């Protein structure tokens, strides 16, 4: 049942349509980001420089931000720069935005990938175990954990972890900061545990519940009964037939939770002083650094759109019954 998928004309057509849809979404996002950050009441130059700035300084900053041009010329100029990889210069730090965002993106990617990997390798076995042991104390414990995980927001979870696991002199983990893994792998591992746990708790609960629910239905299906009647071992039935059929919905849940993950990064990075996109965005918002706000917001939207496209492709690979006509 689960063979290789032949990429016929319909499959390629679906992929092309999805790529076009992603491109249209990103065009809409560019306009939305531009509108939110520039077409707002008040003068951005005055808000950046302060009400006591000289007229010459305000006029110079307006020229730098293209505020002296019509809004459509400002938009076209910004989009043209984005297409050429030029997001402008930070108004507060006076360094290229690409340089700021590049380093922050790498740090956020390290945190997000660590959380996603930990969730994937933990939630799928937990959900499968709860489905196999349905109605037992193990199933009840997982259900309780799932409800608890979804009920606690990141700032509560992060604060609790800081109090109990990062206390001065007694906590096994540092309270915050960042160490690059290529400089000190052990230091990176120690610093990433608490923020990754905070970020991944809700995802872990969502994915485990989804796998448990889907696998419970699969274990009650006719073809699973047929596989058991053929004399196949239970372990083989679960590994070869039940589990693969339960993974596609879990992948869908993970892809939908990417949006939550990107939003949670903002809170988690600020709590644990992690120098990523979320913390950079908060700094830019506090200082009205428009080029940085535009670049970070557009980048987060791009990551979300591409992650959903990738999830659709992975679901098709896991479940050949999915047909994109």
CATH topology value of one domain? MetI-like fold
Number of helices: 12
- Sequence of secondary-structure elements: HHHHHHHHHHHH
CATH architectural category of one domain: Orthogonal Bundle
CATH class of one domain: Mainly Alpha
Residues in helix, %? over 70%
Total beta-strand segments: 0
Distance between the termini: 20 Å
* Overall mean confidence score, pLDDT: 79
Spans of 5+ residues with little confidence (pLDDT < 50)? 1-10
C-alpha Rg (nearest Å):
24 Å
Helix- and strand-based class? mainly alpha
Sheet with the most strands? none
Q: What is the H level of CATH, i.e. the homologous superfamily of one domain?
A: MetI-like
- Choose one word for the global shape: globular
What percent of residues are in strands?
A: under 5%
Can you describe this structure in just a few lines?
The protein is mainly alpha-helical. The protein has helices spanning 9-38, 44-49, 55-64, 71-83, 97-132, 137-151, 154-165, 185-219, 222-229, 234-271, 277-286, 290-318.
């Amino acid at each position: 049942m689960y063979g290789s998928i032949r990429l016929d004309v319909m499959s390629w057509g679906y992929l092309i349509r999805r790529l076009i849809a992603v491109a249209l979404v990103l065009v809409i996002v560019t306009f939305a980001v531009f509108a939110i950050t520039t077409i707002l009441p008040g003068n951005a130059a005055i808000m950046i420089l302060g009400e006591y700035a000289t007229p010459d300084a305000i006029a110079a900053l307006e020229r730098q931000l293209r505020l002296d041009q019509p809004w459509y010329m400002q938009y076209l100029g910004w989009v043209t720069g984005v297409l050429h990889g030029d997001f402008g210069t930070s108004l507060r730090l006076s360094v290229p935005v690409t340089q700021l965002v590049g380093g922050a993106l790498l740090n956020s990617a390290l945190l997000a990938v660590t959380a996603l990997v930990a969730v994937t390798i933990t939630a799928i076995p937990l959900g499968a175990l709860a489905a196999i042991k349905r109605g037992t104390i193990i199933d009840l414990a997982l259900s309780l954990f799932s409800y608890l995980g979804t009920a606690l927001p990141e700032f509560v979870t992060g604060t609790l972890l800081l109090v109990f696991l990062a206390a001065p002199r007694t906590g096994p983990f540092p309270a915050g900061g960042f160490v690059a893994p290529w400089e000190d792998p052990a230091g990176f591992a120690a610093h990433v545990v608490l923020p990754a746990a905070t970020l991944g708790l809700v995802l872990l609960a969502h994915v485990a519940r989804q796998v448990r629910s889907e696998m419970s239905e699969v274990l009650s299906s006719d073809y699973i009964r047929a596989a058991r009647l053929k004399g196949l071992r239970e372990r083989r039935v679960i590994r070869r037939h039940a589990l693969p059929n339960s993974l596609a919905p879990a992948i869908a849940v993970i892809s939908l939770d990417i949006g939550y993950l990107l939003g949670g990064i903002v809170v988690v990075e600020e709590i644990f002083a992690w120098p990523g996109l979320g913390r950079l965005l908060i700094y830019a918002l506090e200082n009205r650094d428009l080029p940085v706000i535009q670049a970070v917001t557009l980048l987060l939207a791009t990551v979300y759109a591409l992650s959903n496209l990738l999830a659709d492709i992975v679901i098709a690979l896991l479940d050949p019954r999915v047909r994109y006509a």
